[in-house]
Amino acid sequence: MKLLVTAGNTQTPVDDVRCITNIFTGRTGGGIAARAFDRGHAVTLLTSHPAVVDAIPATRPRTDPDWRVKPYRTFDDLEALMAAEVSGGGFDAIVHAAAVSDYRVAGAFTFTDGVFENVTAGKVKSSHPELWLKLTPTPKLVDRVRSAWGFTGVLVKFKLEVGLTDDELLTVAEAARVHSGADLISANTLEGMHEWALVGSAPLGFARVTRAELADHLIDRIAALRPGA
Question: pTM for this one?
């Protein structure tokens, strides 16, 4: 198979030197990409942390054209890479494991005497007594895979929630899968993300797998969903 995998976090710039981001390092997506390649598949990995996958031992040389790693930093970087790769890459499957920013910074402001003043700059001054950031939603990149970029292969979405029971997580995950037109979803909670994930779909059933099992389980299920499998 020919797979596109996204991994890691995205940065949301506050100014030219500061950003908002999240805690995720791309280890899950990088591990899936590395395992898929070891099993003989061609992989393109878009990641914000190339060093993470570099540290994973390989069973065969990682060289072009079957192994490609493209780094990104910001939401806009990842969006541009995905648009180009998905539209022209001819992939059999996309595993969208990246932890993409839900909001972008639309300005920095001070608030004095009931009035907001825009203090957005290349480097916002550190002398302000307080600072207000305006955040606006980013588009969901996984929702563009089918609609905007015309992908017709197997799509795997990832979903992380906090404080949900398994039943609650399954309900949220299935709704998210259907919304994005994904074939499979891998869902877990922040509390259990290092131990397990629920993988599947309502039509095909869900399986609870350990983190160590996740890559092989996903690759097997993707292969089973390919036309003619």
Answer: 0.94
Report the CATH fold assignment for 2-101+141-225.
Rossmann fold (3.40.50)
pLDDT tens readout for residues 88-119:
879 999 999 999 999 999 999 999 989 999 99
**What span, in angstroms and rounded, lies between the C-alpha atoms of 149 and 71?**
20
C-alpha–C-alpha distance, residues 141 and 4, integer Å: 14
Domain locations along the chain: 2-101+141-225, 103-137
| 117: its two tokens | 């003043």
84 vs 3: CA distance, rounded Å: 14
Q: CA–CA separation, 10 vs 46, rounded Å? A: 11
Tokens of 190: 């922040």
41 pLDDT above the threshold of 90? yes
Concatenate the DSSP letters of all residues of 33-57 into one string.
Answer: HHHHHHTT-EEEEEES-HHHHHTS-
